[in-house]
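#struct-pred
JK: can someone run the complex with zinc ion? inputs below
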Amino acid sequence: MAQLEHLLEKQDKIWICKTCGLTWKRKPKVKCQGIPAIRHDELPSCAIWDFNLYRNNLTKKREAKPIAYHHKRSYRHDYCYKLSDCKKRFEDIPDLILTKQEKDKLGYKTKNQLEKMHLQPKPNARKCGVYYWEKETGGGFAVFYHPNDTEFFAPDQYLTKTTLKKIYLLSEGWVKRLGEPDKMADNPHSYTHPIKLYSRKRVEKFLANNASEYSNWLDKRDTYLAIFEKNKDKIQQARDLVKNQQKMCLRCASSCALDSGLFCAIHPTGLERYQMPCKDFSERND
Ligand SMILES: [Zn+2]
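RT: done, structure tokens with the ligand placed:
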């Protein structure tokens, strides 16, 4: 607000400002607001106090100037504006202002309440009313909907990489293609590596957008699995062969343990699989 000098006049040992109407016994040090100071109950008709704007779904126009104010000892005074200097704050907010109790009686629900029931307002749902809360508690409003005007929605979930691989059979490459995770969570096992979480909705949308590629990948994966399944015994035999050879080498007189691993004096470059089991094995004596 403008900081002006009071227009002072002395009447019966009292200083009075002809602009704001405030009075003092001694010349005031504070500046003048330049508009009349009034009591809350002296609000001019066709005007509104600023603290009542939001609960009437109003906001003052950019160029609006207060026509009077209520003087408070605290820093922030209350100002009043002409209604013609105000406009609707939200165009689509209903005019029906209800208390929480009235709203509950009518069975209306806020978006937050609906969400907990896995419901959301239909795209063209009618807004039944609105509840405003005081500035002291944050100031805001909530719109109510009738439960008949709502529809079920699947809540989102956040999945770890391991879950993605297990449920959607994604490879590391596919997870990379998903891009950055949607959320991070504290990792109880590591301070430096938070757990990456992916939105289930986003993952499914991504897979749907890449449906043909995804189904090709699943087919390919099935083929790999089928090949593995068919050759399981042979693969297991090969693994056993290597494992047994390692055991033999540990007991063999020709090998010695170095920092870089087991070193064999007879086969310094290592054994090929077809050479297993090694014919040069000789039991260590020590
Ligand atoms: Zn004044």
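RT: quick notes.
The chain has a mean pLDDT of 87.
DSSP finds seven helices and 18 strands in the chain.
JK: thanks, will look after standup
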